[in-house]
């Protein structure tokens, strides 16, 4: 204490100064700032005593360490001059008050500031900290219960002096205008935040934050850019500086020399319509005040509302940023990502189709099993638009399985623990086998299905040639010209009008007959070269191996395939010929599409909600190359457009999304994008540029979700365990 009664302390400690009757209150200050004889205002030798029981200076001390970037030093000579400042007077204490104190405390006040005239040169005054975001009673008490001496509150100064509430302690930093002005326009916004040194390592590109307004609303934003800017004039781009930093004995860089800034991308404003109303959002139409705290998002409902994620539906994964799960103070702490699956905003999104794409080995099948299993719960029912009673039914899941992996949905995952199941249940994640899973196996000459991956029931079938009557493209080879395709339609039409068994072998015998050839060529119904080309392309040993085999025709078991609540798997791995595989898959696809799109059709298909899962979708929905491919794409593009009305959902899985025709891609509402390294594939997905850059770096199970009708574009992590068997 100087003779004038004023102790020398840091600028940061000025806001904890208080007045005690007949005795100055002991104040704890950072240990780094000591008081020497040269630093007293009036030449005195005494210094303020620091009470170990007083906790007020602790937080300021930590902040000092963070800013300085170094440990405390016991040598006063090493302390920088700018760290040692005399205590300025509060704004509420004027020079007149100091010289003419009054009231019961006048004697103590006079003795404390007897030499206050020497302080007239101070230019700074510290206003009492206050916050419009937190009420006065939210601040915890500062003073130790062990203090023996009571003190009288100086009301004009003590308000808000206490430590920040926990929510402010968690703040990343503050909104600042020191770099760029705060600005918001209809198309963009400029909101810059200064990030405190203690929280800098926690900020990532894409981190979600909230910024409170004074009226209780909150700005929900995403970190869109991070940058360092110089705080002091430090030239760190010199040869001397670089050698010093690369020296093993060099001290680490002082981060206090730099400002660490986060540029925020506003996503929405969170608010309550009424005092007790539910949380909702609107577009970001206002900017926060300068110096407002930037807070982490700790409320799961705020995250779901801010990103427009439904609170329930089909579980896809957990929200993440940079491959790390977003955690909240809720229970459970993770944020589940659901696909909207009700009629509150139109039809469920599965009927606007889904695409899962990723390179080989990124977990497409694992993820697909987990998602498809969610559709097969007893409570999941969809209504049929044309049903007279508007009844709802469970969907039938039809899976085209080129690797013989999906029949395992019939089996439980033996590795799941009780803890896993409890965690799944807490987030409405369906797990466990689906007993209605059946494998429908096409009989192919010379090929046998092993069926050893699950105990699911196996039903053998054959494709009758009669299916070709209305789907001539089933036997039209790729590259067939338009004239040849027209000629094939003519030949098939006349063949199915004739009497006799309409088998593939009878058709080949019919068109190879010389009299038949002469009839069509001589009458100019089909050109000679086109006719010979048709015969060469259609007379293939592949077709003879699959049509009209010794098994039940698929047309006779339609009721067994398309049943509500059933999973019907069509494995094709056992078939060595890719052309036969394609024929089987296209036959099933055409059977579904024809009956769904036509005004009349088989009741089992037309009156059942169907989800068609198509693995290796690029093989069947590739960009048109010839008349054959053009007809296939045209048919299934119609199915994609009308699927919403007919309760038909496409679930496409591929590693080559760039090969799928644009007319089909445009109909897909929800895209789950795993790791891709092909630039053409990434560009074809039409996601924002900032997300395109992330796709090649996604880890296994990590994905970007682009579903405009469900949520903002986000990153999620799939489950680490499969809800059914996966081997």
Key features of this structure:
disordered N terminus, 14-stranded mixed beta sheet, Elongation Factor Tu (Ef-tu), domain 3, 6-stranded antiparallel beta barrel, single chain, 727 residues, Rossmann fold
Can you describe this structure?
- By secondary structure, the chain is an alpha/beta fold.
- Among the domains are: 167-237 and 253-296, Elongation Factor Tu (Ef-tu), domain 3 (Beta Barrel), CATH 2.40.30; 343-463 and 548-671, P-loop containing nucleotide triphosphate hydrolases (Rossmann fold), CATH 3.40.50; 465-547.
- Helix content is 25%, strand content 17%.
- The chain contains 21 helices and 24 strands.
- Strands 9, 10, 11, 12, 15, 16, 17, 18, 19, 20, 21, 22, 23 and 24 form a 14-stranded mixed beta sheet that branches.
- Strand 4 and strand 5 form a beta hairpin.
- Helix 10 (482-497) crosses helix 13.
- The longest helix is centred in the C-terminal third of the chain and has 20 residues, at 578-597.
- The radius of gyration is 37 Å and the shape is elongated.
- The termini are far apart.
- The model is unreliable at 1-162 (pLDDT under 50).
